[in-house]
Amino acid sequence: MNRRTEQQRDRIGAQVLVCTNDRDSEYACCADVGADEVVAAVKSWLRDRNAFWSPIAVIETACLGLCSEDGTAIAIQPRDEWYSDVTPADVPDLLEREFGPEAESIDERAVGGGVP
Ligand code: FES
């Protein structure tokens, strides 16, 4: 086992967790309401700003507890920001709100930079 916390803290300023949970159930799940398209939109927005993975990681997750018939759930960590009902069309505004138009507002809130 290798503890690699410092390496990751240096590399990753934030994590965008996108629920892609699929369930065979009567209840809504993100996989049924466009989660794959939301993940693609998140990655595309970050890639266009050269911010994909370093410094902003994208993680597909299981249920975040914000299930909806109207869109996908996203959490931004370590900021403790949570969104539900996200559609691909919402992604640019959501990410711009969090990280600025060019994904420039990362370092001051980065994990390694010391989150208050
Ligand atoms: S299935 Fe995505 S938040 Fe529950």
TrEMBL record:
Listed CDD domains: TRX_Fd_family (cd02980)
Lineage: Archaea, Methanobacteriati, Methanobacteriota, Stenosarchaea group, Halobacteria
Annotated protein name in UniProt: Cobalamin biosynthesis protein CbiX
Superkingdom of this protein's organism: Archaea
Native species: Natronobacterium lacisalsi AJ5
